[in-house]
Specification:
This protein is α/β, with parallel strands linked by helices. The protein is built from seven helices and 13 strands. The strands form three sheets. Strands 1, 2, 3, 5, 7, 9, 12 and 13 form an eight-stranded mixed β-sheet that branches. A three-stranded parallel β-sheet has the order 4-6-8. Strands 10-11 form a two-stranded antiparallel sheet.
Length: 224
């Protein structure tokens, strides 16, 4: 697995997620309709700013009655986080029969996950204990909040998962802020950082021109 360097992490934290999306979509390996999660995956704590890490994945089912309880897969997930030399983002897929009732993270799990190296969670399920978790500085992206944990249990960890319309592999870079979530392989990190600077410069020039005395609708149309 390829890991981000400290320099790459620092650079990516300085970029907002829409600019990352604009940058990565210019790479020949990407379609501009892929790689970003839908509006149903919502930032729970916008004030915590940009979250950048690499994915540790999991599938969860908390809404099957009578399921045998086991924490072994959760412990495997924590071990994967602990072994990652960069900040980890847990990307969790709800596979239960009642997805609107699935609750995958509260303050207990967040506390342990943060202690071993995770900075946040991205899930298509629910979360709870949001006030306490927010106070920890642990970021959450989720469909919404659910008050009960249900029948806790992870089914798998470190497997490809599809969350928010994006296939996420273990080790993928997760870049997210109040605008949403973008995912890309770590091999594209340098490209994204470089291209993001070009995107920022192009957009700044466009903004300044639109606000200048030189702007006209005719010229805008001519530029295409």
């Amino acid at each position: 697995m390829k890991y981000l360097t400290i320099g790459q992490l620092d650079s990516l934290r300085e970029i907002d997620t829409p600019t990352v999306a604009n940058a990565v979509e210019t790479h020949e390996s990407r379609l501009n309709t892929e790689g970003f999660m839908g509006w149903n995956i919502r930032c729970q704590f916008p004030d915590l700013g940009v979250m950048v890490g690499q994915a540790v994945t999991a599938t969860l089912n908390t809404t099957t009655t009578g399921k045998v309880k086991s924490r072994s897969v959760w412990h495997d997930c924590l071990q994967a986080i602990n072994e990652m030399p960069v900040p980890a983002v847990i990307v969790a897929k709800d596979i239960g029969p009642r997805p609107f009732h699935g609750c995958h993270f509260g303050d207990g799990m967040a506390n342990v996950a943060k202690r071993v190296g995770s900075i946040g969670l991205v899930t298509d399920g629910g979360v709870r204990d949001v006030e306490t978790v927010h106070g920890m500085g642990f970021q959450m992206f989720a469909v919404g909040t659910v008050p009960a944990h249900g029948n806790f249990g992870l089914d798998e960890t470190q497997v490809p998962v599809e969350v928010g319309g994006v296939l996420v592999n273990p080790g993928d870079v997760v870049h997210a802020d109040e605008n949403g979530v973008v995912v890309f392989p770590p091999e594209l990190a340098d490209y994204v950082i470089s291209e993001a600077q070009k995107v920022t410069e192009r957009e700044a020039a466009q903004f300044n021109w639109v606000l200048s005395d030189e702007f006209s609708l005719e010229e805008l149309i001519k530029r295409g």
